[in-house]
């Protein structure tokens, strides 16, 4: 699949094996960044031929998604003989993507970059769209640029080794794309959810490809997130709040799935969505989220404050992307605190019962 961007068109390939990695030639102008867990799992199989001084092992925790980490990689890469022609290859999830994308963008004002998304979340969603983000102090994703990779290689066997928590987080985004697609998407995900949960390779391959194809239409129309791309924020206004409030114990995609429940319950109360549709979506979501809310300080005031801090908020009433009766999405600027609180209470009550 080719993604069109103003700086360059770039290709995403979905592979059902590791051939492309096994054939990789690491020349003297290439530097490789690898997620630490991934490295430990696959070192013998995939990474033991990379020369010792040409790779960096990155621990993917939010605390490391910083400008300091990016600068450290930039500095090490000054040892690569090529300058603007240096090549960066990175393997990992969204955290590795965000840091290495930033490095590839700023080092010598832009170097070659190939990204191998190894989490389901990065593969089905974040790898395209060109956003790079770094956390600064307590501000999540405060710093960032737009810089897509030259090439994206997805190898679906990587999903086999993901923890249950990280795998389910990726499914949150997969389900979100299908829900955004409308009734047909919901039906498709209902029919396939058990295969997805069993990590069936063919099914995953198909859903990853379709998720990217769905996102492609939005990012190509609105590369720099000034218009229609805001629809991709569906469920995220609430999701981001759950993520931050739990100090990232609830991972991104799971928080988005929870955010979908909140958004849809608001639509239901407004008479915009049919109860049968809302219930069908929730029946799928309950299968993919396992959140121990007893262990997380779910304080309504803290969550409301977090929602208000979201960068898309501008007034007393809140802005959110909600679903209309025909299942199209609408940016709504008059969401009341009381509507959100009722929907979140519903979500928490149900999570407590699970
Ligand atoms: N740039 C964007 O457009 C964009 C979009 C969405 C999210 N994000 C960012 O992405 C991050 C979340 O991404 P993520 O969910 O991929 O998380 P992640 O990068 O933190 O990876 C999750 C965990 O999976 C491990 N891992 C990675 N690949 C593995 C594999 N194949 N087998 C076993 N373990 C593996 C990692 O070590 C980590 O512990 C957040 O920081 C979020 O802000 C960025
Ligand atoms: Zn997301």
TrEMBL record:
Q: What is the organism field in this record? A: Wujia chipingensis
Q: Which residues form the 3-dehydroquinate synthase C-terminal domain?
A: 170-312
Q: Which SUPFAM superfamilies match?
A: Dehydroquinate synthase-like
Q: Where is the 3-dehydroquinate synthase N-terminal domain?
A: 58-168
Q: Which GO terms describe its molecular function?
A: 3-dehydroquinate synthase activity; metal ion binding
Provide the alphabetized UniProt keywords. Answer: Cobalt, Lyase, Metal-binding, NAD
Keyword Isomerase set for record: no
- What is this protein identified as? 3-dehydroquinate synthase
CDD domains xrefs: DHQS (cd08195)
Query: What's the cofactor?
Result: Co(2+); NAD(+)
Q: Pfam families, alphabetically?
A: DHQ_synthase, DHQS_C
Endpoints of the signal sequence: none
Q: Name one GO biological process term.
A: aromatic amino acid family biosynthetic process
């Amino acid at each position: 699949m080719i993604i069109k961007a103003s700086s360059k068109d770039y290709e995403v390939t979905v592979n059902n094996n590791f051939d492309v990695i096994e054939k990789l030639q690491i020349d003297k102008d290439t530097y490789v960044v690898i997620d630490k867990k991934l490295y430990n799992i696959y070192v013998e199989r995939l990474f033991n031929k990379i020369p010792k001084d040409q790779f960096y092992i990155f621990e993917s925790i939010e605390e490391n998604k910083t400008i300091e980490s990016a600068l450290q990689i930039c500095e090490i890469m000054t040892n690569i003989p090529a300058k603007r022609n240096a090549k960066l290859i990175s393997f990992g999830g969204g955290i590795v993507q965000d840091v290495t994308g930033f490095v590839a963008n700023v080092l010598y004002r832009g170097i070659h970059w190939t990204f191998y998304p190894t989490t389901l979340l990065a593969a089905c969603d974040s790898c395209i769209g060109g956003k790079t983000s770094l956390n600064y102090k307590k501000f999540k994703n405060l710093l960032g640029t737009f810089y897509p990779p030259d090439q994206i290689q997805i190898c679906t066997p990587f999903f086999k080794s993901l923890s249950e928590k990280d795998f389910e987080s990726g499914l949150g985004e997969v389900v979100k794309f299908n829900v955004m697609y409308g009734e047909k998407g919901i039906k498709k995900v209902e029919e396939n959810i058990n295969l997805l949960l069993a990590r069936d390779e063919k099914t995953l391959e198909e859903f990853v490809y379709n998720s990217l194809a769905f996102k492609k239409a939005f990012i190509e129309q609105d590369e720099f997130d000034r218009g229609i791309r805001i629809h991709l924020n569906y469920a995220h206004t609430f999701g981001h709040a759950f993520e931050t409030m739990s100090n990232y114990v609830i991972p991104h995609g799971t928080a988005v799935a929870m955010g979908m429940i909140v958004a849809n319950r608001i639509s239901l109360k407004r008479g915009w969505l049919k109860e049968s549709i809302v219930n069908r979506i929730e029946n799928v979501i309950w299968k993919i989220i396992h959140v121990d809310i007893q262990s997380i300080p779910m304080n309504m005031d803290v969550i409301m404050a977090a929602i208000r801090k979201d960068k898309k908020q501008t007034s007393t009433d809140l802005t959110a992307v909600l679903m209309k009766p025909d299942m199209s999405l609408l940016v709504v600027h008059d969401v009341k605190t009381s509507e959100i609180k009722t929907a979140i209470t519903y979500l928490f009550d149900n999570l407590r019962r699970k």
